[in-house]
Batch of 2 targets.
Target 1
Amino acid sequence: MRTVDEMVDLFKARGYRMTPQRQCIFRILQDNTSHPTAESIYRAARKQVETISLQTVYRTLNELASVGEVLPLELGTGMARFDPNTDQETHHHAVCSVCGKVRDVFAEYQGVALPDALRPDFDVVAVQVVFKGVCSACQEASRTLRAMTSRQEHKAKAKMEVVG
Ligand SMILES: [Zn+2]
Ligand SMILES: [Zn+2]
């Protein structure tokens, strides 16, 4: 995504109305690597501009996507995510299936290609690789939970043995 000032000029040139609400959304997205949902942008924007609506956030995101300044992503987390980094050649994603956290993966996967049989009918524009797995924080949380559960089971067993 371009700088906030450049975005304002681009939107004006396209005849979009420039409002404090939209500028606020531009600022939130600038250098944002969290792959936010429309709702999380809305929550952050409301802290700065109280009069913003979720509808304005969606409309602005659609406009940004249509001029190629944000990349809408469907990563299987239940809600569309928006990425101001629109490089689809060397920029891919790793998604935690527990908490939905999305991380950027910077690598080129030139080996990924359509099977020959499909090639005449389909023109590939971009290849997006999505790695699905569990992030380190969620791995840690599940280890802690397992340890706690096994301690409790242990205690319960000991109690039963005493009673028995
Ligand atoms: Zn996670
Ligand atoms: Zn990304």
Note: Residues 35 and 62 are 15 Å apart (CA to CA).
Target 2
Amino acid sequence: MASRPQHPRPSQPPFPANAWEHVLASLEEGIVVIDRDQRIAFLNPTAATLIGQSLAQIGQQPYSQVFAANAWIVDIIERTRNSSYSSTAGEGMITGRLQRLKPVRAICSPIFNDEVRFLGLSLVLHDLSYQKELAEDAQRADHLAQLGVVVAGLAHEIKNPLAGIRGAAQLLHSRLSSAPANQTADEYTTAMIREIDRLGALLEQLMQLTAPLRLDRRPINVHKVLSDVLLLERETVSPGVEIRTHFDPSLPDVLGDEASLAQVFRNLIKNSLQALNGCSHGSLSLSTRMATDFHLVRGEPEQRGRFLSIDFADNGPGIAAEHLSQLFTPFFTTKSQGTGLGLPVSQRIIAQHGGIIRVESEFGQGAHFQVYLPISPHTGERG
Ligand SMILES: Nc1ncnc2c1ncn2[C@@H]1O[C@H](COP(=O)(O)OP(=O)(O)O)[C@@H](O)[C@H]1O
Ligand SMILES: [Mg+2]
């Protein structure tokens, strides 16, 4: 049988020439193009999110109007226009949707065609929120390290005599309670031991806040850890409060210290349950997912990776705006019996895992805590 002549297949271009809009849409940087008439000609989705308006909403408005609330960006664009050949960069806050402020770095550069004809300007907006959060975490860790030296010394000084006092109180308790008709003494010594134990637990938390953590990191399934914690905490749930879970079963393991992560989850769940105490339609929702909205850059490029997120959302009273920035400060508490150590200790543990904790809340609107944990490239992914 005669074989058909072999035509070479038209070679597929390695990358479609008309795909640049998709390329721009895929970027984590906000890209704004300004034409020669000083109007906004293009916005990629990241820029639209940062500015809080879509291209359709902007409808070829001049940039001075679009960035009216951000004079420093107008200034950068104008300086680039005037220099006409060099880029200009700066950092500042951008006012996005709902008047939310975000820190960004802006770089404005002129665009030329092959004939060196000026076509317009490009403005690249880089969201600095996560870097700022990481920098704040690092600064807080520094403060804690300094505080740590003092606290560790003090805790050590208190621990030993406290153990002695506890021993003596226990002895007193057994002597007095064996004597007839000594119910009051029995109550007093029981209260003494209870308060000594409370102090002991406080010292333990203080040491955790500052002493180097010894983490035994292995691949663990966060759902198992969450379920174990929930099993115990469910017993303390007051009537009228419901706990719901939405776990994504395809999530990979994380490399973590099980006991420490359980402690973080317990702290967050306890805080929500305490906030919901007495609510008639209280709900706490625990959900897990891959963090697609989030690309954390920490450490060396080979350590950068993807994150999973564990969300704790309650419909309790929420957190007043003036308290939000203090939540992770040691000893900040609004509870009469609180220590104000749960969140700072949790933050420290999560930071040691290469993750972060974020919180969103409006007073009266419930609280939403998010724990981001890196997925180790070594643990592999399921599903
Ligand atoms: N889910 C929540 N709802 C409302 N407020 C919260 C919630 N979680 C934490 N908080 C606030 O954060 C403070 C600090 O929490 P934490 O560090 O755990 O210390 P503590 O629980 O001992 O007060 C609490 O006193 C409370 O005001
Ligand atoms: Mg707490």
Note: The pocket of adenosine-5'-diphosphate (ligand 1) is lined by residues 267, 271-272, 275, 314, 316-319, 327, 332-335, 338-343, 367 (CB under 6 Å).
